[in-house]
Amino acid sequence: MSALTHALLRDYSDSFRSFGDLDNKIWFLDLEEGGGRSLEKAASKIVSWHEAGRTDVSYLSGPGADTQSGSDYLPKPSAQAKPGVQAKLHKTWSNQLRVLLGIQGAPLSNDAVRELQVAQHGTAGGPTCLLELFPLPCKNAGSWVYDQVPFDDAVANNDFASRQGYYTAYLPRRIEKLKALIDTHKPEALVCMTWADRDALIPLLDSVEEIDLGMPKCTGNAIIGKRGSTVVVICTHPATRFRGSNNHFYHEIGNAIRRQMEAK
Asked: Which CATH class is domain 6-262?
């Protein structure tokens, strides 16, 4: 396997990969990909992407899936059917799918979320496409392993010396690429679970307003707007602690998106 270099880090950080096809109608934007518990694990993922031809589309399940089949979150459908075998609900995916149920006008149900997670989320020709605002895999918001990659002096600045330096260098470029993707593919809705970066994302929108979800005891935040024909929501990430039912919070966001779509 090739070594992880700064040139490869730069190329990876400039790519916009997705789980699910960009022609799928409902997009979800997360902050960054999980993983990166060590430099070795992060390097394995990034170098594998390079050696596999730098493809920008992957799938969570179904034909062409490249995640570990049989995982706790994505067991094979045949395994799901066995007595006592049931997929665990993924913290982020399950709340994205509660949004989807709201968009579809379907009632809130963990069984429905589980079925979508196992067989339809981020799949070829499915209802959803998953994107990351920042591409480098990270364990959590407090970890950073890429400062361990030797700087190659090919450029003036080391954008990977710190997480904040990486964010500062790549956020404007990522926003421009996201604009181009929206304008080209015109999804029906984009749900940005990146509330902390709302000031950078709001300029994407032609219009913006706060959403009244009718949940006064819930401290989750959300705004809604449009870019062209695409309904865009920027909201609290599922990993954020907030008071109230996050299940209902994300379902109500989906209901708000559906109302906007129906009003077109």
From this structure: alpha beta
